[in-house]
Amino acid sequence: MSWTEEYSEKVVSASEAVQAIKSGDRIFLTGNCSVPRMILGALVDRGQELEDVEINQALTVGSADYVSPEMEGHLRVNTMFISHNTREAVQNGRADFTPVLLSEFPLLFKEKHLPLNAAFVHLSPPDEHGFCSFGVEVGLSKSPAESAEIIIAEVNEKMPRTLGDSFIHVNQLDYIVPVDYQLAELNMGGGEPSEKVDKIAAFIASLIPDGATMQLGIGAIPDAVLNHLMDKKELGIHTELFSDGVIDLVEAGVLTNTQKTLHPGKIIAGFILGTERLYKWVHNNPLIEFHRTEYVNDPFVISQNDRMVAINSAIEVDLTGQVCADSIGTRLYSGVGGQLDFIYGASLSEGGVPIIALPSTAKDHSRIVSTLKKGAGVVTTRNHVHYIVTEYGIAELYGKTIRERAQALIKVAHPKFRDQLRREAREYHYI
């Protein structure tokens, strides 16, 4: 049987496809801007017929119907990164959170710590050889999909065909649901950055040498940094994700990837979060290679890039250098993501620059604190931290004593909190 005949035989509607799901099953759900909406919607429609179906995922963009109170006892999310649409469900106990490094996320399924009955994936149309691309979300999806007993795939005419380790053959799919809708979009830049964010971005840019390879985390700060790099030369990208701002750097001749020591000439990523402009740009673009996250985020792979720059954010940082980025006290907020993967990888790199950046305040509270809130999660330990950047400057902590760290962090805290921080630092005998 040819692959085209096999494809035709596997085509079903979304409601027919989800009949394969049974009570007690564990499902992997492709996430980010690649959530397969039709299949997920059909599962929700059938939800009341099912009991104790577990949906495993990372960040998802889109509807939260599948974590609504009505689905309790029927569908339950187990997320490894808490996104906006699942946060309330996790915080209210209707959904679960599993802490894990992003580099190890696919291994939970691949190594059968969480064996999968099914995977819901979102693919491009097949090429002339019968290979579909995972498109805008490769890194977190390919290994889990290959680990599942069955694969239910939406094949979307609007999904770009991305290159690298991004393909799966039609003969590996069990059910195919043809769709034709626009992918979810996420504008990472969100317009002009605030004055505070722009100052932070400028300080970060001052730490980035010519010829650097960069990782860019999620949020306004990493995206704003791109605006300050137009005078740099021969930059490269090795990152779990990137967004629209990278296009402008490539078109300006700043981002060439020629000085990379690993995968020279290529942008390496696991997935993208962006707009239709980005999706069209990555389609069949040989400049970009997508790879599995267990490869992209491996600190020992990352470290092979000389002058590796990692840019990540935080919720708060204490005076010893502990970085909380996944919770607000005991309230779970996001996840470790790839922060520690890249901070550690950059620290092992020749000439590497690991950066944690954050505004000095939030809602009139200092984010540089004497002690983390009760229950706060430490994502980057004080043993891993190198640079902390706020709108007031750069605190270089690596190799520094607790006394030196506390003094440096107080200098980049908001001025109105510095006296209080000094008093508390003396109380704890930090200074």
Strands, helices and their partners?
Layout: H1 3-10, H2 14-17, E1 26-29, H3 37-46, E2 53-57, E3 75-79, H4 84-91, E4 96-97, H5 105-110, E5 118-123, E6 131-133, H6 142-147, E7 150-156, E8 167-169, E9 175-179, H7 195-206, E10 213-216, H8 220-225, E11 236-242, H9 245-251, E12 267-272, H10 276-282, E13 288-290, H11 293-296, H12 299-302, E14 308-313, E15 316-318, E16 323-324, E17 327-328, E18 331-332, H13 339-348, E19 353-357, E20 361-362, E21 365-366, E22 368-369, E23 387-390, E24 393-396, H14 402-412, H15 415-427
Parallel strand pairs: 1-2, 1-5, 2-3, 3-4, 5-7, 7-9, 10-11, 10-14, 11-12, 12-13, 14-19, 15-22, 19-23
Antiparallel strand pairs: 6-8, 15-16, 17-18, 20-21, 23-24
Report what the structure shows.
The protein has 431 residues and is α/β, with parallel strands linked by helices. The chain has two domains: 177 residues, Glutaconate Coenzyme A-transferase (3-Layer(aba) Sandwich); 233 residues, Acetyl-CoA hydrolase/transferase C-terminal domain (Glutaconate Coenzyme A-transferase, 3-Layer(aba) Sandwich), CATH 3.40.1080.20. The strands form six sheets. The chain has an eight-stranded mixed sheet, sandwiched between helices. A seven-stranded parallel sheet has the order 4-3-2-1-5-7-9. α14 runs antiparallel to α15. The protein starts with a helix and ends with a helix.
Largest sheet properties: 8 strands, mixed
Instruction: Kindly give the count of domains.
Output: 2
CATH superfamily of the largest domain: Acetyl-CoA hydrolase/transferase C-terminal domain
Radius of gyration: 22 Å
How many beta-strand elements? 24
What is the CATH C-level name of the largest domain? Alpha Beta
The assembly state of the depicted protein chains is single chain
Task: Enumerate how many helices there are, as a single number.
Answer: 15
Shape: globular
Strand order of the largest sheet: 13-12-11-10-14-19-23-24
Arithmetic mean pLDDT: 96
Distance between the termini: 75 Å
CATH structural architecture of the largest domain: 3-Layer(aba) Sandwich
